[in-house]
Design brief:
The chain has about 130 residues and is an alpha/beta fold. The two termini are about 25 Å apart. The chain is globular and about 45 Å long. The protein has one domain (about 5-125): 2,3-Dihydroxybiphenyl 1,2-Dioxygenase, domain 1, CATH 3.10.180.10. It is built from three helices and eight strands. A four-stranded mixed sheet has the order 1-4-3-2. The model has no long low-confidence stretch (mean pLDDT about 95).
């Protein structure tokens, strides 16, 4: 068994698609209309056959509440691995990404956290 798709609640699918593809460099894999919304998945350009990230609309009240509460508490919704966190941090800053935590050593890893503009905090980690 393996993880094929993981989802992330977003406030606006189009805005999220733009952020995750243009700012973070993910590649759109699926974009299929589903009623009022779309099934939009992205993959890492380094592993296009790997796990897909689903940009899921937060239209359900429980999804909105969950997203709002973890954001308010400063809890990242998900984590992405990077090879060089200081290089990634600098590149993302240059693209206008707003960080809530600069690269910080935490035991055996270094982490940083940014706002995805779609209702989530995202953590990047270098092991």
């Amino acid at each position: 068994m393996k993880i094929t798709v993981t989802s992330l609640f977003v406030q606006d699918q189009e805005q999220a698609l733009e952020f995750y593809s243009e700012k973070l460099g993910f590649v759109k894999k699926e974009d299929v209309p589903v009623g009022d919304y779309r099934w939009i998945t992205l993959v890492s350009p380094e592993d296009q056959g790997g796990t897909e990230l689903l940009l899921e609309p937060n239209v359900h009240p429980a999804a909105k509440e969950y997203q709002k509460k973890i954001f308010a508490d400063g809890i990242p919704a998900t984590m992405f691995g990077v090879a060089d966190i200081h290089k990634e941090y600098k590149q993302l800053l240059e693209k206008g990404v707003k960080f809530t935590m600069e690269p910080t050593k935490a035991g055996e890893v270094t982490i940083a956290v940014f706002d995805d503009t779609c209702g989530n905090l995202i953590q990047i980690v270098q092991k």
